[in-house]
Design brief:
The protein has 171 residues and is an alpha/beta fold. The chain has 7 helices and 8 strands.
Length: 171
């Protein structure tokens, strides 16, 4: 099986605005990429979410993964991922979670408990759509190292949960 190459969409965000979805897909196809990625940073990207499962048919390039950043102690953001993102993906793409730092002053034990509850909520929704979920360690976030992500994945112990290795944040 040949290896797929997909492009993270962060190169499409700049101070002058964002490229339209159709333009992004056209550029990536022209450059030879096999798939793309959606980073849910703002309202415009959340609007793109509905295109994720239809992107290959409509634009000729599938969405391989969707990147979201729930705040570690805000269960509303975890619920939004479970109730909005996963149904939209419908198993067509992986979900990558980069867990943001807390906004309050919760203890590390409380934070970990909320994160575990949030992950269980997301994985329950992921099981309904058979969507794989990847923990994405991100420099400066609550989940900031591969070893921390591996420990959390082992604790949760769900076959749909894995860890994304991002070389950019490794170095």
């Amino acid at each position: 099986m040949p290896m797929k190459f997909y492009a993270m969409d962060t190169c499409f965000y700049h101070a002058m605005g964002n490229y339209k979805w159709s333009t992004r897909c056209e550029i990536l196809k022209e450059l030879g990429f096999d798939a793309t990625y959606i980073s849910l940073f703002g309202k415009e990207e959340w609007d793109l979410l509905d295109l994720a499962s239809q992107s290959e048919d409509r634009y000729g390039i599938p969405v391989e993964a969707v990147y979201v950043t729930p705040e570690c102690t805000d269960l509303k953001t975890w619920q939004q991922v479970a109730n909005r993102v996963l149904p939209a993906l419908d198993g067509s793409a992986e979900l990558e979670l980069a867990i943001m730092p807390p906004t309050g002053e919760d203890s590390e034990e409380d934070i970990r408990s909320i994160v575990v509850d949030g992950l269980h909520m997301i994985l329950e929704a992921a099981e309904k759509t058979n969507t794989r979920v990847r923990l994405y360690p991100h420099l400066g976030f609550w989940l900031s190292s591969t070893s921390q992500a591996m420990e959390l994945a082992r604790k949760i112990n769900n076959p749909l949960l894995g860890v994304m290795f991002c070389g950019f944040h490794w170095f």
